[in-house]
Amino acid sequence: MTGPMRLTEGELIRRIEAIFTGAGLCKTQAGALARVIAAGERDGCKSHGVYRIEGCLRTIKAGKVAADAMPELAPEDGAIVRVDAQGGFANSAFELGLPVLEESARRHGLAALVINDCVHFSALWPEVEAIADRGLAGIAMCPSYASVAPSGGQAPLLGTNPFAFGWPRPGRDPYVFDFATSVAARGEIELHRKAGKPLPEGWAIDRDGQPTTDPAAALEGAMLPFGGHKGSAISTMIELLAAAMIGDLTSPEALEALGTTTLAPRHGELILAFDPGRFASRAGGNPFPRAEALLDAIAGQGARLPSQRRYAARAEAQAQGIALSAEEVALMDRLAREGLAAV
């Protein structure tokens, strides 16, 4: 039996990319997807790591993603950068649009990247972190498919609708947060189901609208928004900005088009980039020392800044390799060997 192992990030990317190219994805799609999955494992985010390969393969097998898609950059439109993902995964579309987004944000002070017709996979922190690494502040958001009941409702209507923010910290890891507007990401429900563990109270309702701690019942019913009406309102904002406003599918429309919640959803994504120096220039100040004073004051009270656990896991992985369990190694071996027949 295959045992646990440690791989460098590059080695893990190559193994995952080989699984996807073997399943029919073109190199552009497979490489972008492999990079974000490997980053999830590197940073200890198991809900967006190797575990997600199977779901991507199911989406490919079902013909719900364009395996040979080459994203296309639209002609310049002021501060709006548009990329048509051509029915492929969002990750390659973001990689294409990022340098143009940066240039536009430098020129205008702020810019928006609109990705249309994408199959969305992964957390949003890789995107806002990539923006912050270029010295810009970033916000990313997207709908999903209807799996969350609005506050006071009893049936799925909203998506898990993630929202992420990144702020550059020169010489330090950026300040980044990324969260679903549901109490938990759908991947967390799946992990509880696979582990046979009950959900915490307040995460979900069953198909009859009654509270449940059974992951299977939750997947048949609906998740709940975080913070009650506040999370519900933020989730609705994301539906309006990252779906209706950019001319793409809302979460109910995405579910209707897909017909299932077992595959990756197809919709759009909105990413905003800001140049902090440009915003502060007329006030005559440098925003970064003041931002550092605030963040240091938060940490000085003993509070943990978001993403600190990720960065600690990353440092360990970079020093010692990315740790994979025997089960994860066996899964990758099987998927590489059997391809789409494995799902």
Describe this structure in words.
- It is a single chain.
- This protein has 343 residues and is α+β, with helices and mostly antiparallel strands.
- It has 3 domains: 1-61 and 307-343, Orthogonal Bundle (Hypothetical Oxidoreductase Yiak, Chain: A, domain 1), CATH 1.10.1530; 72-178 and 227-302, Ribosomal Protein S8, Chain: A, domain 1; 183-224, 2-Layer Sandwich (Wheat Germ Agglutinin (Isolectin 2), domain 1), CATH 3.30.60.
- The chain contains 13 helices and 12 strands.
- It has helices spanning 9-22, 27-42, 53-61, 90-108, 125-132, 186-195, 215-220, 229-244, 251-258, 276-280, 287-300, 308-320, 326-338, and strands at residues 5-7, 72-73, 80-84, 110-119, 137-141, 163-167, 175-179, 204-205, 211-212, 222-223, 266-274, 322-324.
- It has a 7-stranded mixed β-sheet with strand order 2-3-4-11-5-6-7, with helices on both faces. Strands 9-8-10 form a 3-stranded antiparallel β-sheet. Strands 1-12 form a two-stranded antiparallel ribbon.
- Helix 1 (9-22) crosses helix 2 and helix 1 runs parallel beside helix 13.
- The chain is globular.
Question: Any descriptors?
Answer:
single chain, 343 residues, alpha+beta, Ribosomal Protein S8, Chain: A, domain 1, Wheat Germ Agglutinin (Isolectin 2), domain 1, 3 domains, 7-stranded mixed β-sheet, 3-stranded antiparallel β-sheet, 13 helices, 44% helix, oxidoreductase activity, oxidoreductase, Mal/L-sulf/L-lact_DH-like_ah
